[in-house]
Design goal:
The complex is a heterodimer of chains A (737) and B (192).
Chain A lengths: L9 E5 L2 H28 L14 H33 L6 H24 L12 H23 L8 H20 L2 E3 L5 E3 L3 H36 L6 H15 L14 H13 L1 H14 L4 H6 L1 H23 L2 H7 L3 H31 L6 H34 L12 H37 L11 E5 L6 H6 L12 H10 L2 H25 L15 H12 L14 H7 L34 H9 L15 H4 L7 H10 L6 H5 L1 H20 L8 H9 L19
Antiparallel strand pairs in A: 1-4, 2-3
Helix pairs in contact in A: 1-2, 1-3, 1-15, 2-3, 2-6, 2-13, 3-4, 4-5, 5-6, 5-7, 5-18, 6-11, 6-13, 6-18, 7-9, 7-18, 9-11, 11-13, 11-14, 13-14, 13-15, 14-15, 19-26, 21-26
Chain B lengths: L8 E7 L2 E4 L5 H23 L6 H22 L5 H8 L2 H19 L15 E2 L5 H10 L15 H16 L11 E2 L5
Antiparallel strand pairs in B: 1-2, 3-4
Classes of the chains: A mainly alpha (737), B mainly alpha (192).
C-alpha cells in the first residue's frame, strides 16, 4: 500500500503554539489552586475550626471545589495542552480554526471561574464530580462541542495519512466525555441555580456512577495515555515497544472501561446483576490498563541510563508505575469482598490519589518540563530543582497514600467488628474516627510535600522563562506535504490477494486502513463506548423501582423537600452516606439495610461514597429534634470529638420558600405523585408543619421562633429519612430481642 | 509471525519522529487477560444462571437468621436479673464503678455527667416519664424510647454493661437531686 507521494509539493506549516502555552499556564495555576483547596479540606478533618464557621469555607462546599478543580481545571487543562501541542505535530497541520481554539481556552477558564464561585455559594447539583449547576453544564457542553468540532476538522485537514495511537486516545476521550456529560446531566431546571435530575434513586445512582467512573476513565486515564504515547518516546528518543499491543489495549480499554461503573455501588440497592457485571468488567479491565503501562515501560528498554539523568523521564517512569499500581488496585477494590472493607473508607481516597498525584500529576509535570524549552525557547533553569521536585513529590505521594491505606482498613475493620455476644466492638462511630486521626496528620504532611514540589516547579518555570520576549515566541514551523488520496475501494482491495481471499495480515491491515480514516475510526470508537452504557442503563430506565404492595412511599412534604435541598446545598453527602448495606454488622450499627424503593422519589440520589461521619439513611427518629438542633449549632455539644463543622447560619437564615410550588411542579413532571392540592396549598402546608415542629422545639428546649428558619426544614428532612420502610417486615432486624 | 521479529521497526510508521516496533504481546499479559475473561464468563454464569450463586441480599438474610437465633439463645442465657439481684448488684462498688464508666461514656451526652439532664431528662429528681421503678428503668435502658431519642442500648452494650449502668442510675437517683433540667413526668415517691 503506497501512500507517500513524493511529488506532492512541500508546504510550510506553522503550529499554533500559543494555545499550548496558554493551556500550560492554566494547568499550573489551577493545579496549584485545586491542590491548595485539597490541603485545606485535609486539615479541616484534623481541626474542625479550620471551617471558620463560614458557610462558604465548610468542607461540604469545598470538597466539590477541590475534586472539580483537580479534574476539570488541572487535569483537563493539562490534557488540552498536550492535545493541542501533539495533535498538530502528529498530523502535520495547524489546528483547523484558531478562533475555535481561543474560544475553547477562554470558555473553559470562564467555566472554571464560574465553578470556583458557585460551589462556595452552595450552588450544586449534589452529584459527585457533576456538581456544576445546569447553566454551567450548558456552557461545558457548548465549549466541548467547539473543541470537538475543531479537533475533528483538524483531523480532516491533516497531512499525515494515518493517525498515531496518541490521537486514538484523544478521540476516545473527547467523544466519551461528551456522551457522559450530556447523558448524566439531563435535568429539569427550577431556577437559574437549582434543578432536579430526571433520574431518581437507584437509577440516578447508576447513571451518576457510570458518569463518575468514566469521567475518571476518560479525563484522567485515556487522555494521559495519549499524552504518554507522545511525550514518553519523544523524551526517551526510543520507538514504541509494540504497535499491536497499542491496538489491542486501546480497543479493550475503550470497550471495557464503560461497563465498570457499578463497582461504586456494591452492596447497595442497585440490582445485583448490575453489580456482578460491574465487577467482572472491572477485573477484565486489569490487563488492558496494564497494556498501556507495559508499552510505556518497555519503550524505555535500552534507555534506562537516560532515566537516571533526565528528570523528565523520571517523572514519566514514576507516573507510569503509579498508573500500573492504581490500575491493579482498581480491579482489586472491585472484588465485592474487598469492596465490603474498602467502600466508604479512606482506602478509596488513597486509591484515587495514587492515580491523581502519581499518574496525572507526574505525567503533567514531566510534560511541562519537556515543553518549557520547546514552547518558550529556553532551557530549564535548574535541572537539580527539577530533580528535587521529583523526589519531594514522590515522598509526598507515599506519605499521602500509605497512611490512608492504613486508615481505611483500620476503620473498616472497626466498623465491622462484632464480638461473640453479637455486639459491635466499636458501637461508637467516634471511636473509629479517633483511631485514624494520626493518619490524617500524615496525609496532610504528604499533601503539603506534594504542593511544595509544585511550588518548586513553578519557581523553576518562572526562572526559565524570565526575560523571554513576546517577539521570541514565534510559532514552530515545519515543511510538510499532503498525502495523496487513494480511492477507498482501492484501499479495501489491498486487503485481499489476487484470488479475492483475505491476506495473512488481514486484520492488522484493516486496522491500518481505519487509521487512515479518522472519522470512521471515531465512529467505531463511539459505538464501542456506547455499548456498556446502553446495556446497563436502558433496563434501569425501563424498569422503575416499585414498593411492595403494603408499603406507601410518601413523597417529601414541601418543608422536607426544602430541607433536602439544604442538605444538598451544604454538601452533606461528602461525608455522610444514605445507604445501609445489607451486611449484618452494618445493619446492627445503623438499622435495617436500605431497599431501592425507598429512594424512588429522590431527585437526585444522595447515597454518598465516603463515611467521614456515620450513615444517615436510618437516622430518622434516632435522636430527638433538639439533639439535631444542638448538633447542627455545635456538633461537639452533643458528640464529643466530632469532626463536623458547625452550621450556625442555619439557625438564623430564613427559609426561602419563594419557589416552593415550582420545585413541586418540576418533581411532579418527573413522576413524583404530588396531587394538585399539594402544590396549590404548598406554602400553607409548609407553614403548618414548620409551626408544629418549632412548637415542639420550644416546648422541649426553649428554642423560640424557629419556624421560619432553615434549620427546621433540615431537621424535618433528617427525621423523616428511612421511615417509609418501617412497615416492611423483611427489613426488621433484631425483632426477637 | 516472521514479521514480528523483535525490535524491527514498522515501515511507514513515523509520526513527528516517533517510530514503532511491533513486538509480540507479552505472553503473561495475554494469559492474564484471557484468565480474567474466563473468570468473567464463569462468574456471571454462576451468579445469574446456575442457580447456585448466592446473592448479597440472600447472604444477608442468612446471616441475620443465624444472628437472631443466637440472640434468642443468648437472651435465654442472659436473663435480666430480678429486682433482688439488681439490688445486690447496686450494692457492689465494683459494679457501680463500671456502671459509672458506661454512664459517662454513653449517657452523659444527653443526661449530663451528673445525671442532671440536658436533652434527656434529669435522672436525679423524683419525677419519671416512663416509670421510676427499678424494673421500669431497666426497661427504658434496654428498649429505649426511640421516638424521643433514647437509644435502645440492648444489642449495643453488652449485658454486663447494661445491668451495671441500670444499677448505677438507680444509685445515682438515691443520692439526691442535682440542679439541672426541670422535672418531667410523674412524681414517684422514693425514686424507685
Amino acid at each position: 500500500m503506497k501512500i507517500e507521494n513524493s511529488s506532492a509539493a512541500l508546504e510550510t506549516v506553522k503550529f499554533d503554539d500559543w494555545i499550548a502555552r496558554a493551556f500550560l499556564w492554566a494547568t499550573m495555576i489551577w493545579g496549584l489552586v485545586g491542590m491548595l483547596v485539597g490541603l485545606l479540606i485535609a486539615t479541616q478533618l484534623i481541626d474542625w475550626r479550620l471551617n471558620f464557621d463560614l458557610p462558604w469555607l465548610t468542607f461540604g462546599r469545598l470538597r466539590p471545589l477541590h475534586t472539580n478543580a483537580v479534574i476539570f481545571a488541572f487535569a483537563a487543562n493539562s490534557f488540552f495542552a498536550a492535545c493541542y501541542y501533539s495533535t498538530q505535530r502528529l498530523l502535520k497541520t495547524r489546528m483547523y480554526s484558531d478562533l475555535m481554539s481561543r474560544i475553547h481556552f477562554w470558555g473553559w477558564q470562564l467555566i472554571i471561574v464560574a465553578a470556583a464561585i458557585s460551589f462556595p455559594i452552595g450552588w450544586t447539583q449534589g452529584r459527585e464530580y457533576a456538581e456544576l449547576i445546569w447553566p454551567i453544564d450548558m456552557a461545558v457542553t457548548i465549549i466541548w462541542v467547539i473543541f470537538t468540532v475543531n479537533f475533528l476538522l483538524t483531523l480532516w485537514i491533516r497531512r499525515e495519512k494515518h493517525i498515531y495511537v496518541a490521537i486514538w486516545f484523544y478521540i476516545a476521550s473527547i467523544l466519551a466525555i461528551a456522551m457522559l456529560h450530556v447523558v448524566n446531566n439531563i435535568q429539569l431546571p427550577v431556577s437559574w441555580t437549582l434543578s432536579y435530575s430526571v433520574y431518581a434513586g437507584a437509577q440516578d445512582a447508576l447513571v451518576q456512577w457510570w458518569y463518575g467512573h468514566n469521567a475518571v476513565g476518560f479525563l484522567l486515564t485515556t487522555p494521559f495515555l495519549g499524552m504518554m504515547y507522545y511525550f514518553l518516546p519523544k523524551a526517551a528518543d526510543r520507538p514504541i515497544f509494540s504497535y499491536r499491543l497499542s491496538i489491542i489495549h486501546f480497543w479493550a480499554l475503550v470497550f471495557i472501561y464503560i461497563w465498570a461503573g457499578p463497582h461504586h455501588l456494591y452492596y447497595s440497592a442497585l440490582p445485583e446483576w448490575l453489580q456482578s457485571l460491574g465487577m467482572v468488567f472491572s477485573i477484565m479491565l486489569w490487563a488492558p490498563s496494564w497494556g498501556g503501562m507495559l508499552n510505556g515501560l518497555y519503550t524505555l528498554r535500552g534507555a534506562w541510563h537516560k532515566v537516571r539523568e533526565e528528570p523528565i523521564l523520571k517523572f514519566f517512569v514514576a507516573a507510569v508505575t503509579a498508573y500500573g499500581m492504581s490500575t491493579f488496585e482498581g480491579p482489586l477494590l472491585s472484588i465485592k469482598a474487598v469492596n465490603k472493607i474498602s467502600h466508604f473508607t479512606d482506602w478509596t481516597i488513597a486509591h484515587v490519589h495514587v492515580g491523581a498525584l502519581g499518574w496525572v500529576g507526574f505525567m503533567t509535570f514531566g510534560m511541562i518540563y519537556y515543553l518549557i524549552p520547546k514552547l518558550w525557547k529556553r532551557p530549564i533553569y535548574s535541572r537539580s530543582l527539577a530533580n528535587a521536585h521529583f523526589w519531594i513529590g514522590l515522598i509526598g505521594i507515599l506519605l499521602y497514600a500509605v497512611p490512608l491505606w492504613i486508615a481505611g482498613v483500620t476503620q473498616a475493620l472497626m466498623w465491622l467488628a462484632m464480638d461473640d455476644q453479637g455486639a459491635l466492638v466499636y458501637p461508637d462511630f467516634m471511636e473509629t474516627v479517633k483511631s485514624i486521626m494520626p493518619m490524617y496528620y500524615l496525609r496532610a504532611i504528604g499533601g503539603s510535600l506534594f504542593i511544595i514540589g509544585v511550588l518548586i516547579m513553578l519557581y523553576n518555570f518562572l526562572r526559565s522563562i524570565a526575560g523571554v520576549k513576546c517577539s521570541e515566541l514565534v510559532d514552530t514551523e515545519i515543511k510538510a506535504a499532503h498525502f495523496s488520496t487513494v480511492k477507498p475501494e482501492d484501499q479495501i482491495s489491498e486487503l485481499f490477494d489476487k484470488e479475492g481471499k483475505p491476506k495473512a495480515s488481514f486484520w492488522k491491515q484493516v486496522h491500518r486502513l481505519i487509521e487512515g480514516w479518522p472519522l470512521v475510526f471515531s465512529a467505531i470508537a463511539l459505538m464501542a463506548l456506547m455499548v456498556g452504557g446502553l446495556v446497563q442503563i436502558v433496563p434501569m430506565i425501563l424498569v422503575q423501582a416499585s414498593a411492595p404492595k403494603d408499603i406507601i412511599v410518601r413523597p417529601y412534604t414541601g418543608l422536607e423537600l426544602l430541607g433536602r435541598d439544604i442538605y444538598i446545598r451544604e454538601g452533606c453527602y461528602n461525608c455522610h452516606s444514605q445507604q445501609v448495606r445489607p451486611i449484618l454488622e452494618e445493619a446492627k450499627r445503623y438499622g435495617p439495610a436500605s431497599k431501592a424503593y425507598e429512594y424512588m422519589y429522590d431527585h437526585p440520589f444522595q447515597w454518598g461514597s465516603k463515611r467521614t461521619g456515620p450513615d444517615l439513611h436510618r437516622v430518622g427518629g434516632k435522636y430527638p429534634d433538639l439533639w439535631h438542633y444542638r448538633h447542627l449549632e455545635d456538633p461537639r455539644s452533643v458528640s464529643a470529638n466530632s469532626l463536623m463543622p458547625p452550621y450556625p447560619w442555619l439557625l438564623t437564615a430564613n427559609l426561602d420558600i419563594s419557589n416552593l410550588e415550582t420545585r413541586l411542579k418540576v418533581l411532579k413532571k418527573l413522576g413524583v405523585p404530588y396531587r394538585d392540592q399539594d402544590i396549590e396549598f404548598a406554602k400553607e402546608d409548609l407553614e403548618k408543619q414548620a409551626l408544629e415542629f418549632s412548637g415542639r422545639l420550644n416546648k422541649d428546649g426553649g428554642v423560640k421562633n424557629s419556624e421560619k428558619k432553615e434549620i427546621v426544614a433540615l431537621i424535618v428532612y433528617l427525621q423523616r429519612l428511612g421511615k417509609d420502610a418501617q412497615s416492611d417486615s423483611v427489613l426488621k432486624l433484631g425483632e426477637s430481642q | 509471525m516472521n514479521e514480528s521479529d523483535d525490535d524491527k521497526l514498522m515501515r511507514d510508521h513515523e509520526y513527528d519522529g516517533i517510530q514503532e516496533y511491533d513486538n509480540n504481546l507479552p505472553r503473561w499479559w495475554v494469559y492474564k487477560f484471557l484468565i480474567t475473561i474466563a473468570f468473567a464468563v464463569v462468574y456471571m454464569y454462576w451468579m445469574q444462571f446456575s442457580g447456585s450463586g448466592k446473592n448479597i441480599w440472600d447472604e444477608y438474610m442468612t446471616d441475620r437468621t443465624a444472628y437472631e437465633r443466637d440472640e434468642m439463645l443468648r437472651a435465654a442465657k442472659n436473663m435480666r436479673p430480678s429486682e433482688e439481684e439488681f439490688l445486690a448488684l447496686a450494692a457492689d462498688p465494683l459494679v457501680l464503678s463500671s456502671g459509672e464508666l458506661v454512664f459517662k461514656e454513653r449517657c452523659a451526652s444527653c443526661h449530663g455527667l451528673k445525671g442532671e439532664g440536658i436533652v434527656g431528662p434529669n435522672l436525679t429528681d423524683h419525677y419519671w416519664i416512663h416509670g421510676g421503678s427499678l424494673m421500669e428503668i431497666a426497661n427504658v435502658v434496654e428498649k429505649g424510647v426511640p421516638e424521643k431519642g433514647m437509644v435502645p442500648w440492648k444489642g449495643i452494650l453488652k449485658p454486663d454493661e447494661i445491668y451495671a449502668v441500670i444499677a448505677y442510675v438507680h444509685e445515682l437517683n438515691k443520692k439526691g437531686e442535682v440542679e439541672g433540667k426541670a422535672a418531667e413526668g410523674e412524681f414517684v415517691s422514693g425514686g424507685k
